[in-house]
# Entry
Amino acid sequence: MCEVQDNGSTVLTGNMDFEVYTYEYVTQRLYRSSTNRSELHLICKYNYPGNEVKFSWRWKSVHSQYPETQIASGRKGQSININRTHFGERLKPATTLFNGKDFTMHIVPVMFEDAGTYTCFVGTILYVTVELITVKVTVDTGTGGASTNLTCSVSEVTETVRLVWMGNDNKTFITEKTLKAEIQEEKSLSLSVQGADGGTWTCVLFHQNSPRVVIPYYLEPSGECFWRGKCSM
# Structure
């Protein structure tokens, strides 16, 4: 029953059917390593009526002051348009032809510069927000191979985390650093390895004592570095 009132008096009544839909807004914070096999799945699945509108994914880089950029868009029954300015061929839709429901995107591999905020819009409705934080390891080999400096860096600190360098046994914490969002400081942790100390050194990012990112790095005793055949990531 629908009733219309004017100054407290009923002026019109009628029987009408109403459908009420509750939209569940999704927000996530994800950590990914900047490595050759790291993957990011931007999931945006919409199972409500009204899916004839335009869907879009937007990205705001944490490394840039520029406004957010639309990186993908599409309408039901049409091919999905991809903006490859930053991601190139690394950004791919789950399906080429959009079915009006699954607007999921994949980024493979993830790079350190991909950090930022990703948002999925259904028309003008903000439906999904993904905050991506990336971690990388870089290497600096000293002259003559006497020592090698390994640096583990995080793109952004939005909650308290720990960076830890672990030794060959994957048990010993060699050095660690706690990073807090409210404290402005260098968002990295370095480890100096002598040329004779070869083996695998592992950078781990912990949040609430749970490892979120693990990056192993192999060094030859000579100081020559290997990570999937490369000396940098």
Notes: Confidence is low (pLDDT under 50) at residues 18-22, 226-233. The first strand starts at residue 2 and ends at 6. The domain at 23-133 is CATH 2.60.40.10 (Immunoglobulin-like).
